[in-house]
Amino acid sequence: MHWSTNTGVGLVAELTLVEAINDAFHVELGRDANVMVMGEDVGRAGGVFRATAGLLDRFGPERCVDTPLAEAGILGSAVGLCMAGWRPVCEMQYDAFSYPCLDQLITHVGRYRWRTGGAMEFPLVVRMPYGGGVRAPELHDDSPEAYYVHTPGVKVAIPSTPGDAKGLLAAAIRDPDPVVVLEPKLHYRTMRGEVPEGEHVVPLGQARVAREGTDVTLVAYGAMVPLAERAAEELEDEASAEVLDIRTLKPLDEDALLASAAKTGRVVIVQEAPRTAGYGGELAAILAEKAMLDLQGPVVRVTGYDVPYPYWQIEDAYMPSVERVVDAVRKLLEF
Amino acid sequence: MPASPVRPSGRFVGVMAQVLPAERDLRRVIGDGDGVPDGEVEGLSEQDLLELHRWLVLLRTYDERSVVYHRQGRIGTYAIYWNHEAMQAGSVYALEREDWIFPSYRESAIGLLRGMPASTILSWWRGHPAGWWDPRDWNVASICVPIATHVPHAAGLAWGKKLRGERTCAIAYFGDGATSEGSFHEGANFAGVMRAPLVLFCNNNQWAISTPVSAQTAAKTLVDKAVGYGIPGVRVDGGDVLAVYEATREAVTRARAGGGPTMIEALTYRAAPHATADDPSAYIDPQRVEEEKQHECLGRYEAYLRRLGLLSDEAAEAVRVEAVELMRTGIAEAEAEPPPDLGLVFENAYADPPPSLAADLAELRRILGAPGA
């Protein structure tokens, strides 16, 4: 870990995305003795991606818990832990391994506060690596964000940079409501970036303009943000493309979305998940309802296809690519 | 050891082919007044025995009045627990006030035993937000409607309290059908691994709506499942409030001593429909139901108390009048609750709600012309 000063404001480090998550854990568990981490292999092994490395030794087996292999049991017992005053952070080992926990998420996590008339809080976090491009076996590649976003009572964040990975996780841990954080595993170790040292919180509900532009807005989150940035570079001679990183899918920063749409008049949404009823459809619907007169063309989606995530030798054909985004932008500019 | 694990003959014998062998290691205290002697539970005073009676009557009265209220259109669909009262009263009596109760819908009124107003529970069945409660006020979790999904909650709470160094236990109630659910398994397994101070209380009334317990499992008894979690299991007569009390007291004592969870299977028979919306005539033998009604749990306990000379007609009547009065007050209070403001639709799901909810509420008020727009 390499630390350097950040223009005198505070220390920053160049960290990989997964190192930034680990940093957030060390800071947040150190800050609040009620925060605990639980999941499969999170303790002794430090997580299969090492996101929780060092926590067991530093905070002990009661606050960094290797659990049985049972995702519904992890999230279900986390509900009870909240009732006992803990703030559990549950790791789901992979995106698609989280599906067994959906029962608890839908039937209880998103409802329990409401069920108590708002009396009890359930400040738990569910975090998981998500997304493809890592040459993995089946069910290690999914983008399940729509299932989570669709569930009332929970919030959903997806960082795209190491700094946001730390800051959004810290915000999720401190939030009084249940928050699901999906982390782009493709960039766990392939992306480095500046990460503020110590306490660093990126508030939920605030999008980020990753790149300024005037002709078209590329709306993305997670692993699709750097892809959109590469597409914007590719288009540099043809159009000035803005890249809006949504960061928090729920609550959505609608103002930022509408402001960018008003500024450029053209929107392309890039989403790795399958197209139908995906989060991009929600963004498109909001633009249709609230930005009609600002738009100079249809809202276009570049998404994964409505198929099971393919075998990895052909996964690149499934993933949204720079070529597909550039093609969509060109068509929109010609509309 | 239980004071008197009596095994009378004649009762629960000749069960229908589709139910489990009921006699297997079934603990009982109450005899039948006819050859099978009464046992006793060490440590229970006469006052305790009468208080247990009061609890049974309270629960029974709530249940019977609720069925009437439903027929009168004063509450919605209601899950009947008639002949389950001994399991609820006996187990709760073994708890301390600080211990947490995780009820299923079959134990909807169990909060009465902690002093929760009847109006709160009636409001819940009336679909009124006055039926919301803060679980910390009674250490009674919210009523769990989906089957078995509260078992992991109870495991988590018990584990979390233990991590904090508190001596609190938890008890989770679920039915025979629930033991087929993954959530039961994951919760029981978590509790076993974490040695959580938890009582897994299975009220085996032998029916999951229309599905007999033989269609739920190939296990000989439900408590056999405890072996798979490395935890003790005990099987009691669920119609015997004293056997239930004693088994629960043992489980709670073990839990507080760091011995981890215990599974209790309490065997009874669902002698009433699953719920007010259910017509069991299509799937249940009415003659069997009538037989079971003949030795329902409250009557058995009252006969036991009378044999001991502890219960007079006057005393029994006084307890009943008290319970009926409580229900009369409860339904009156529940019906006096003002209609909830539609704004409640948008409240309470989040501590910090998305701004879109406030916009939705304002829009709805505008359309409906409601005040406060």
Descriptive account of the structure:
The complex is a heterodimer of chains A (335) and B (373). Chain A is α/β, with parallel strands linked by helices and 335 residues long. Chain A has helices at 17-31, 55-59, 71-83, 102-109, 112-115, 145-149, 162-174, 224-234, 254-264, 279-290, 315-318, 322-334; strands at residues 2-6, 10-16, 35-39, 64-66, 87-91, 125-130, 155-157, 179-184, 192-196, 208-211, 216-220, 241-245, 248-250, 267-274, 300-304. The radius of gyration of chain A is 20 Å and the shape is globular. Chain A starts with a strand and ends with a helix. The model of chain A is unreliable at 1-8 (pLDDT under 50). Chain B has 373 residues and is an alpha/beta fold. In chain B, helix 6 links the parallel strand 3 and strand 4 (198-204). In chain B, helix 1 runs antiparallel to helix 10, helix 1 packs across helix 11 (313-336) and helix 5 packs parallel to helix 6. The interface between A and B is large, with 46 and 44 residues.
